[in-house]
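Regression test case RT-17, inverse folding.

Input:
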């Protein structure tokens, strides 16, 4: 039986300003109880401009919610206008950082090589990367979704040591299921998550692969989360739209009750 603690992470994307972020985290904190945190790790990934406010709230009230960023610069400092470094995120006590989200790959031309440099930057600064992978619709329709996703896993983890990789979180997000309401079938999610675990065993060891958490992401809601979480290789969810509604996100955290 798996000892992996599920990770439910809300990726707010480009939503909620810093005042709204405070109200939202307060609502989550009010609703979630110790028994929730014992069963599930809960995290939010707000926009960069919200992180200081979230940190102040989490620190001040000793909240058990973890938080992180949606992206990280591959560079440590210098003339990189608009970028945010791992050192800056670490200073704000971020735990996680999403790397290679499909929206970064699609709108900012992030290749596996760029994603890999960002994974390295995350580890360098003591952050845990949530490495996002997943195929576009044409690739799935052509039956190449597993191979495509595994090559993104391999590319993202290039030169990452076993000591580092044992803490990575992989988020499998089929692009066609993101924000579309089209949920990948639980069996389909399991197929790819299982293959990702197999790839981790091949790259490292079975023991390491058994330890790594693999999330599913793509139109996760309270109504479908239980079925997805019932899959043996799915260890959590990366939730976009539904994480903006605090009540709905709490229901997702409490997937066992749904
Ligand atoms: O990071 C989250 C994913 O992109 C899923 O977004 P979604 O739940 O709105 O489909």
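Golden output:
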């Amino acid at each position: 039986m798996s000892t992996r603690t599920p990770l439910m992470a809300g990726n707010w994307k480009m939503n909620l300003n810093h005042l709204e972020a405070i109200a939202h985290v307060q609502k989550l904190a009010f609703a979630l109880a110790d028994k929730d945190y014992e069963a599930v790790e809960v995290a939010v990934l707000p926009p960069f401009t919200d992180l200081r406010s979230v940190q102040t709230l989490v620190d001040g009230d000793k909240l058990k919610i973890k938080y992180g960023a949606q992206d990280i610069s591959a560079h440590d400092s210098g003339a990189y206008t608009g970028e945010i470094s791992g050192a800056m995120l670490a200073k704000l006590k971020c735990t996680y950082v999403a790397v290679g989200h499909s929206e970064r790959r699609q709108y900012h031309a992030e290749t596996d090589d760029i994603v890999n440099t960002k994974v390295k930057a995350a580890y360098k600064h003591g952050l845990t990367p949530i490495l996002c992978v997943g195929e576009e619709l044409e690739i799935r329709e052509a039956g190449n979704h597993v191979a495509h996703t595994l090559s993104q896993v391999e590319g993202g983890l290039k030169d990452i040591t076993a000591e580092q990789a044992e803490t990575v979180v992989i988020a499998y997000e089929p692009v066609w299921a993101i924000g579309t309401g089209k949920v990948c079938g639980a069996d389909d999610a399991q197929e790819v998550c299982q293959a990702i675990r197999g790839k981790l065993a091949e790259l490292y060891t079975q023991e390491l692969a058994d330890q790594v958490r693999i999330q599913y992401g793509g139109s996760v809601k309270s109504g479908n989360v239980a079925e997805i979480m019932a899959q043996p290789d799915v260890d959590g969810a990366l939730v976009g739209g539904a994480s903006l509604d605090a009540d709905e996100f709490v229901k997702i955290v409490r997937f066992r009750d749904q």
